[in-house]
Design goal:
16 helices
Length: 310
């Protein structure tokens, strides 16, 4: 197992270096000279020369790339052009608000989707299954933006059950998170339920399920103790691919509900063309995606020893 993990980590290094090279090309070459973005159109030639030297843009490209990789290795993303804060501090400040929304919403949506999918698979081709499939398709057809606007208007503005927007640390901030979490769950259930249901139904036609039923085991016991563990590989694939999204939470949810998390920070950075923040969030997102793949491979190997052998 340890040799398998070491091999996967070594394979991730070239991918990470390729990402840094691609980001450097996109933001330093294709994206134009950042000096003009920082100083504006009315900057004098002397100011442009001074800022170019200050940012190290007068160095050869290979030297600039090495400096960029070195700063990433030190976890130094520079300063925001908009707020003048260090980007690392901004990420640290926004991490907890994003995690307070994303983690409970992700766990709840995954568990609810598994329960609904198991129920649909248990009563497949009956009215319960068909109703759940129709609801899932309707959920997939609705955008996150439509759900946010409808929920804010109906449950926050009209009914007054939840605050319209805001965020507070600690238990006093729980009321601000309930409605965004419910919207997250509603928006993610459709595709997840249909995927899990298809996986469960495929497993239910395996020979070991027929054997378990022939021994007299009830369907609920067969689903929970036999089908669910053997369906973990495709389930983990979907879950692991969603893990990097927890870092930014939901861009729309944080923006509309005034949650000062990383998603809200990313939206503001895009609107303000704040390149240092955009570069930092893009790089961290790529790192998390690679990490999620490695974690997924490790979980595959843990659940199925044949993965380690292959």
């Amino acid at each position: 197992m340890s040799s398998f993990l070491i091999r996967r980590l070594l394979q991730a290094i070239p991918t990470l270096l390729g990402i840094t090279l691609l980001l450097f090309i996109l933001f330093n070459l294709v994206g134009g000279n950042p000096v003009y973005h920082m100083l504006g159109k009315n900057a004098s030639p002397a100011e442009i020369v001074r800022m170019t030297h200050q940012l190290g843009l007068d160095k050869p490209l290979w030297h600039q790339y090495l400096d960029y990789v070195g700063s990433l290795a030190r976890w130094d993303f520079g300063r925001s052009w908009e707020t003048k804060q260090r980007v690392t501090e901004m990420i640290t400040d926004g991490l907890w608000p994003s995690m307070s929304l994303a983690i409970p919403a992700f766990i709840a949506s995954t568990l609810v989707a598994l329960i609904i999918a198991l129920t649909a698979a248990l009563y497949r081709d009956r009215w319960i299954d068909r109703l759940l499939v129709v609801i899932s398709v309707c959920g997939m057809s609705l955008s996150m933006l439509a759900l946010i606007i409808a929920a804010q208007y109906l449950f926050a503005f009209r009914a007054g059950w939840f605050p319209i927007s805001g965020w507070e640390a600690g238990f006093t901030g729980v009321p601000f998170l309930i409605l965004p979490i419910l919207i997250w769950i509603a928006a993610s259930l459709g595709s997840s339920v249909r995927f899990y249901r298809a996986v469960f139904i495929e497993e239910m036609h395996r020979e070991y399920v027929v054997t378990a039923r022939a021994k007299g085991l009830a369907w609920p016991r067969v689903l929970v103790h036999h089908v669910l563990p053997n369906a973990m590989i495709p389930i983990l694939t979907l879950v692991v691919m969603e893990l990097p999204m927890l870092f930014t939470g939901s861009l729309l949810l944080e923006n509309f509900f005034g949650i000062p998390g990383l998603g809200n920070m990313s939206v503001n950075a895009i609107n303000a063309s704040d390149f240092p923040v955009i570069k930092a969030m893009t790089f961290i997102g790529a790192v998390l995606y690679i990490t999620a793949n490695v974690v997924g491979d490790a979980l595959y190997a843990w659940f199925d020893p044949r993965v380690r052998v292959s």
